[in-house]
UniProtKB/TrEMBL annotation:
Fe cation 2 binds at residues 153, 204, 255, 258. One of its GO terms (molecular function) is alternative oxidase activity. This is Alternative oxidase. GO terms for cellular component: membrane; mitochondrion; respiratory chain complex. One of its GO terms (biological process) is alternative respiration. Keywords: Electron transport, Iron, Membrane, Metal-binding, Oxidoreductase, Respiratory chain, Transmembrane, Transmembrane helix, Transport. Binds 2 iron ions per subunit. Its cofactor is Fe cation. Belongs to the alternative oxidase family. The keyword Membrane applies. Fe cation 1 binds at residues 114, 153, 156, 255. InterPro entries: AOX, AOX_sf. It comes from Apophysomyces ossiformis. It is found in: Membrane. The gene is AOX2.
Length: 301
């Protein structure tokens, strides 16, 4: 009977203290110091820069300029070695999911593509940064380009996010795919950077194909050709009345650059010629010598 009627007593003072401590935690906001002047200067002056020289010209680009860019439509690196064939088959297998799930939903496909495409540059840049620290030696030209590539792909994503709002399910799908791909690509780059860059090259080949299909559906009237987002107009230096079609052309040109760059990086690793700066210096020296020879020939005549 006593056991049934007994209720454990709770100290009122302990409840008050606990409630006070919880509310105090929620109310307390730590002070934020003034932004250091050099941090303020850097943040104010920094802005994403495009990768292709065509987008850095003073002239605003129109549709004709974008269509005349030579990006090598249909360009394909034939897989020769076992690692090349493995990379190619992995990419072809990865394409099955977006082809099946997204179909003609090019905007959502582009969002998924860019969340994945922004991973290789960041992973490669990070791992080469750590390698440079471990070896206490210069990177010789890789890190900056790879991180710029990752930023470029992120800007693609920011552009397409102005055109749609993914559902909660699609956001969760992106989260899962990105998590799996990041870890898989990380370990692939650790064990075989040559294969990792080759795989990225093939991924970009598929990206060029996907954006070409995007263009075709715009031209057929399946997708409306609305105005380009402001972020894309500013980033790509497009004319003020640029359209979605112009943005697709610009993004496709970026993907073609990443395709060529990653295949080139894979070739350099295979040839044990990873010092890009040394080759650039040799090329500049050769050009200088040629200029001097031409100048002497002109003077003698």
């Amino acid at each position: 009977m006593l056991r049934t009627l007994y209720r454990p007593s709770v100290s009122t003072s302990s409840l008050v203290v606990r409630a006070f401590s919880i509310s105090a935690v929620h109310r307390f906001v730590p002070p934020v110091s003034e932004i250091p002047k050099d941090v303020l200067r850097e943040v104010k002056s920094s802005q994403p820069a495009p990768m292709l020289s065509e987008f850095m010209q003073p002239k605003k680009l129109n549709t004709e300029d974008l269509e005349n860019m030579d990006i090598g439509i249909g360009k394909h690196r034939q897989p020769n070695t076992f690692s090349d064939k493995l990379a190619y088959r992995m990419v072809k297998a990865l394409r099955v999911l977006p082809d099946t799930y997204f179909g003609k939903d090019h905007y959502m496909r582009a969002v998924m593509l860019e969340t994945v495409a922004a991973v290789p540059g960041m992973v490669g840049g990070m791992l080469r940064h750590m390698k440079s620290l471990r070896n206490m030696s210069e990177d010789n030209g890789w890190i900056h380009h790879l991180l710029h590539e990752a930023e470029n792909e992120r800007m693609h994503l920011m552009t397409w996010m102005k055109c749609l709002q993914p559902s909660l399910f699609n956001r969760l799908l992106v989260l899962g795919v990105q998590g799996v791909f990041f870890n898989a690509y990380f370990w692939l780059y650790v064990f075989s950077p040559k294969t990792a860059h080759r795989m990225c090259g093939y991924l970009e080949e598929e990206a060029v194909i996907s954006y070409t299909h995007f263009l075709e559906d715009i031209d057929k009237g399946i997708i409306s050709n609305g105005p380009a987002p402001k972020v894309a107009i500013e980033y790509y230096n497009l004319h003020p009345h640029a359209s979605i079609r112009d943005v697709v052309l610009a993004v496709r040109a970026d993907e073609a650059l990443h395709r060529d760059a990653n295949h080139h990086f894979s070739d350099r690793i295979a040839a044990h010629r990873e010092d890009i700066l040394a080759d650039i210096k040799a090329q500049l020296l050769q050009e200088q010598i040629q200029k001097e020879v031409n100048a002497k020939a002109t003077m003698s005549t």
